[in-house]
Write a structure and sequence with these properties.
This protein has 180 residues and is of the alpha+beta class. The chain folds into 2 domains: 84 residues, Rossmann fold, CATH 3.40.50; 57 residues, no CATH class. It is built from 6 helices and 6 strands, in the order ββαββαβααααβ. Strand 3 and strand 4 form a beta hairpin. Helix 3 crosses helix 4. It is elongated. The N and C termini lie far apart (38 Å).
Length: 180
């Protein structure tokens, strides 16, 4: 079973009066869904960035993937093979069409041939409700005529990774229900 572990992790931004994270110890098991909740400024994005290995090492403590310290790994390889990050903003390439936005990381990082990457991307896009007739559209064109929820689904990595970290993935989608 894959696991992502934080042991006594703290993080303080330079010049901050208090720590963004203070002595966090937790273990995340692969294949399960977890939610980190809290008010704005409580350290949720900082925590996700540390878990994803995004140039923010903890100021104290250690992060482990399957009992191996993240600090000892090639973080580029870790992000390609072990963890994916879905950001609050879409981070799509406007000059690429829908299928290219999904297939490009496979070609770049995974060494998958272009034709195979596009085939995999179309299968993936179909699985999240984006039909073949829409895969050649630009992000702007597609967004103009379809639900705004597609950009938050498109960046999901097609490659199988151990952990998918999501920073408010539904923020930019249309609400189908009002919460009271």
């Amino acid at each position: 079973m894959n696991k992502l572990t934080l042991e006594n992790v703290s993080y303080a931004y330079k010049g901050a009066e208090r720590k963004a994270l203070d002595d966090i110890s937790v273990e995340f098991q692969g294949g399960k869904i977890y939610a980190v909740i809290g008010p704005s400024g409580s350290g949720k994005t900082t925590l996700l960035s540390i878990l994803a290995g995004l140039d923010i090492p903890p100021t104290e403590g250690e992060v482990f993937i399957n009992n191996t310290k993240l600090s000892t790994l090639d973080l580029d390889q870790y992000r390609r093979e072990q963890v994916s990050m879905i950001f609050q903003a879409f981070h799509l390439f406007p000059m690429l069409n829908v299928v290219e936005n999904v297939s490009f990381p496979m070609e770049l990082n995974g060494g998958v041939e272009r034709a195979e990457a596009r085939t995999r991307a179309k299968v993936f896009l179909n699985s999240v409700g984006i039909t073949d007739e829409n895969t050649d559209a630009s992000p702007q064109t597609f967004r103009a005529v379809n639900s705004n929820g597609w950009p938050s689904r498109a960046p999901w990595r097609v490659a199988r990774v151990s952990f998918s970290l999501m920073n408010r993935p539904g923020t930019s989608t249309r609400r189908t229900a009002e919460y009271r």
